[in-house]
């Protein structure tokens, strides 16, 4: 029987986002992509090895003998160390034999042997030094101008480390450009430099589900591999479709895909389109025929961080990861999204940000996030939030004399949320709803309720603050959707 080889990149996120610029992130993503793809093909070198799964940062292969597997691992390791310094990648071949035609959970089935390989990877990880320890800092060595590693050479008058140089070369390679180009639809006008943007967004999505979500009792390893490949293709299709929907025909799509692997994506893009891009990708992926054929495949979640370009890139990436985890925690039955717009950079930890929006004494929360998509929720419904945000976006575009809701009134309510108790806030809200019937109609249609807060499980939550802050990032609907005329 064959032997299974599992390749895995450790601390992949730390490597991807360790650089100080978008160029470094793009280069790192290209190198991580090659770990499980082109580097694997180079190491196979005509040996009797079949690549079962080939994805960014990981791969699963089948070798005919243990000696063949050992030779492959040696060749692959040399290629990775030489071409991708700083990447912490491991390969393991468990002792158990493997049969690709056996059921997944059989003694020699794919999932059973794969778990043995994961345990061996865990042991290997515990017995070795971290990848970062390969580059010790010495007092006599100049630091890299772009990372925390020691410099190894001069490039354009700047000190660069081996890790940074590898990322720069990868980002400028034709392979990287060709790979990114294949992710977009035909004729899509793409601008990948992201210069002169007012807001920069980071979108991260993942699938929350069981380990064997594409398997089943009677599914063999070969069929499982075909399903994984189909899901990877579905992710690329959904990504291309989402780009074409987010940027109109003729517009330059300001987006850089860092990772696109099935339902798992990382993209850096124009912050004004980030929230809508994330929700459209979730919808497009879950509506894809491949996903529809496997309803138990999992639940898609998204985290979106929007910040000024001057804000530290690494901090935005970290916050996006926290937002994604928050969405995963909320997505128990259907898709979820969590986002944050960094108007104020005083607090960058999601826990600190949400603590400021929680009024424990009032059993109140000033944010409705994370938001649930695809099912009704009293206090965390994405569709309710979207309607209100679009309505406020429309109000901002109206002329001063014809506004359904004066923006000054909207910001008076925002100030009251932080300075008044909930009872006084509801009194001020009642005044606004009485005097501005156009807005009151939109609010009741979206929420639907007359009150500022909605109660669920003895917790009072409002959509208003989230919608007000995000309105700048939503396109206003047609004027016919904006409600009645001017308020009293």
Strand neighbour order, sheet with most strands: 9-10-8-11-12-15
Q: Give the N-terminus to C-terminus distance in angstroms.
A: 81 Å
Mean pLDDT: 83
Number of DSSP strand runs: 17
The CATH topology annotation of the largest domain reads as Alpha-Beta Plaits
Report the sheet with the most strands, covering strand number, pairing sense and barrel closure: 6 strands, mixed
Structural class: alpha+beta
Determine the CATH superfamily of the largest domain: Reverse transcriptase/Diguanylate cyclase domain
Poorly predicted regions are 478-488
Approximate shape: globular
Helix content: 40-55%
What does this structure look like?
This protein has 488 residues and is α+β, with helices and mostly antiparallel strands. It folds into three domains: 2-140, Reverse transcriptase/Diguanylate cyclase domain (Alpha-Beta Plaits, 2-Layer Sandwich); 186-356, Reverse transcriptase/Diguanylate cyclase domain (Alpha-Beta Plaits, 2-Layer Sandwich); 382-481, no CATH class. It has 17 helices and 17 strands. It has helices at 12-16, 22-35, 38-44, 66-83, 110-126, 162-171, 174-182, 221-246, 274-286, 289-292, 313-330, 350-356, 382-397, 407-419, 422-435, 437-446, 464-470; strands at 2-10, 49-55, 58-63, 88-92, 97-98, 153-155, 158-160, 200-208, 255-261, 264-270, 299-307, 336-341, 358-359, 364-365, 371-372, 454-456, 459-461. A six-stranded mixed β-sheet has the order 9-10-8-11-12-15. Strands 1, 2, 3, 4 and 5 form a five-stranded antiparallel β-sheet that branches. Helix 8 (221-246) packs antiparallel against helix 9 (274-286) and helix 13 crosses helix 17 (464-470). The chain is globular. Residues 478-488 have low confidence and may be disordered.
């Amino acid at each position: 029987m064959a032997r299974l080889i599992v390749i895995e990149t450790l601390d992949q996120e730390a490597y991807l986002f360790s650089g100080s610029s978008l160029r470094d992130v793009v280069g790192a993503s290209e190198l991580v992509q090659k770990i499980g793809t082109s580097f694997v093909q180079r190491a196979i070198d005509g040996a009797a090895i079949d690549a079962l799964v080939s994805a960014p940062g990981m791969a699963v292969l089948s070798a005919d003998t243990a000696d063949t597997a050992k030779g492959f691992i040696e060749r692959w390791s040399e290629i990775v160390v030489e071409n991708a310094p700083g990447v912490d990648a491991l390969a393991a071949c468990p002792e158990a034999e493997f049969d690709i035609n056996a059921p997944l959970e059989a003694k020699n089935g794919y999932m059973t042997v794969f778990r043995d390989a994961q345990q061996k990877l865990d042991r290997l990880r515990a017995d070795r030094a971290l990848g970062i320890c390969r580059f010790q800092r010495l007092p006599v060595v100049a630091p890299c101008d772009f990372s925390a590693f020691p410099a190894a050479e001069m490039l354009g008058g700047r000190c660069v480390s081996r890790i940074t140089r590898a990322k720069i070369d990868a980002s400028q390679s034709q392979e990287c450009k060709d790979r990114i180009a294949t992710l977009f639809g035909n004729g899509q006008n793409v601008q990948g430099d992201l210069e002169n943007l007012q807001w920069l967004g980071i979108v991260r999505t993942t699938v929350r589900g069981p380990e064997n979500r594409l398997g089943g009792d009677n599914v063999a390893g070969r069929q499982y591999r075909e399903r994984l490949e189909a899901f990877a293709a579905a992710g690329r299709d959904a990504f291309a479709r989402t780009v074409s929907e987010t940027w109109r025909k003729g517009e330059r799509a300001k987006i850089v895909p860092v990772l696109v692997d099935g339902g798992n994506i990382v993209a850096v893009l124009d912050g004004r389109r980030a929230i809508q891009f994330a929700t459209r990708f979730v919808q497009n992926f879950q509506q894809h025929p491949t996903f529809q054929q496997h309803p138990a495949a999992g639940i898609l979640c998204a985290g979106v961080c929007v910040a000024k370009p001057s804000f530290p890139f690494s901090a935005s990436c970290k916050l996006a990861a926290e937002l994604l985890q928050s969405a995963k925690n909320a997505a128990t039955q259907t898709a979820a999204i969590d986002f944050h717009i960094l108007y104020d950079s005083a607090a960058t930890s999601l826990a600190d940000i949400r603590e400021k929006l929680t009024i424990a004494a009032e059993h109140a929360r000033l944010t409705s996030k994370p938001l649930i998509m695809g099912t009704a929720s009293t206090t965390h419904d994405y569709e309710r939030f979207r309607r209100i945000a679009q309505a406020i976006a429309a109000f901002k575009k109206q002329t001063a004399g014809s506004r359904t809701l004066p923006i000054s009134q909207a910001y008076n309510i925002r100030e009251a949320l932080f300075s008044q108790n909930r009872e006084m806030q509801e009194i001020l809200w009642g005044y606004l709803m009485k005097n501005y019937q156009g807005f009151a109609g939109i609010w009741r249609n979206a929420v639907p309720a007359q009150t500022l807060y909605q109660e669920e499980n003895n917790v009072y939550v409002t959509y208003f603050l989230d919608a007000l802050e995000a309105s700048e990032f939503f396109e206003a609907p047609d004027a016919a959707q904006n409600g009645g005329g001017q308020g009293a």
